Amino acid sequence: MTQQRSDISPVASDKEAVGYFKVVSFLRKTLAISSMEIRKLRHDPTELLTRAIQPALWLLLFGQVFSHRGVIPTGGLHYIDFLAPGILAQSVLFIAIFNGISIIWERDQGIVYKFLASPTPRSALVLGKALSSGVRAFSQAIIIYLLGITLGVSLDLHPLSLIGVSAFVLLGAALFSTFSLIIACWVKTRERFMGVGQVLTMPLFFASNAIYPTSMMPSWLQEISRFNPLTYQVDGLRALMLTGGASDYGLALDVTILIGTLAILVTISAWIYPNIAR
């Protein structure tokens, strides 16, 4: 019996080593793609500043007006507090949903063909772009936190809360960025992509709990909001960003929905990724 164990052990050890090497190689390639995308920001950092204008207007104008009116029931929260996590989720959505246009640009430049000829797994290509979208979204989170502090939003600045918010920002950005890659592989032209992107962002935003509670929606829209990933991202952000914030669905469900949806979208996106080159 002892001899059998000594014969099996090296084989099992080799398999573990191979599995470990594959995981490390996959992560390295994913981070390489992400790093390449992030370096583009150094050449045009104004993109981050211009994208900060819209959330600033929502908080400064829309938020201030409705805070004074008090017409939206927010479960005891001041409306500007209720709105801030929703606007952060909106910023993440708007940045990520148009990230797919980069793959069309890469196709036009011939870069996609080089990626497809490389040994890099398709899922690593997709996740690398998704992570870079998260970095863009972090810049918006910093801006919204600074605006929130200026406007007196009851932000929870505990390190664990900030880590939780960062995780939800990254998950949301990765999810919607991957969704945009699927759209890009489908439409294949920048003009069509911009049109489809504009059509999708507004329904996703308004069919969520970003700017008003789902209890205010008609019953049919409430059902739609339950299938909207943005609803669960906002719910998690609202629980973690605000002092005394609470989750309507539970943080465990929020995380499960976002991770599960991301896994499905990454699988689909990796499968159809070569279509962009056809």
Short description:
This protein has 278 residues and is mostly helical. It has helices at 2-43, 46-51, 53-69, 79-97, 101-109, 111-117, 122-151, 159-187, 190-206, 219-225, 229-241, 251-272. Helix 4 packs antiparallel against helix 7 (122-151) and helix 8 packs across helix 9 (190-206).
Please describe what this structure looks like.
The chain is an all-alpha fold. It has helices at residues 2-43, 46-51, 53-69, 79-97, 101-109, 111-117, 122-151, 159-187, 190-206, 219-225, 229-241, 251-272. The protein has one domain (2-277). 37% of the residues are buried.
Shape: globular
Largest sheet entry: none
Q: Count every beta strand, where a strand is a DSSP E run of 2 or more residues.
A: 0
Q: State the end-to-end distance.
A: 57 Å
Whole-number tally of structural domains: 1
Sketch the topology as an H/E string, one letter per element: HHHHHHHHHHHH
Topology record:
Blueprint: H1 2-43, H2 46-51, H3 53-69, H4 79-97, H5 101-109, H6 111-117, H7 122-151, H8 159-187, H9 190-206, H10 219-225, H11 229-241, H12 251-272
Helix pairs in contact: 1-7, 3-4, 3-7, 4-7, 4-8, 4-11, 7-8, 7-12, 8-9, 8-11, 8-12, 11-12
Which key terms come to mind for this protein?
278 residues, mainly alpha, 12 helices, disordered N terminus, single chain
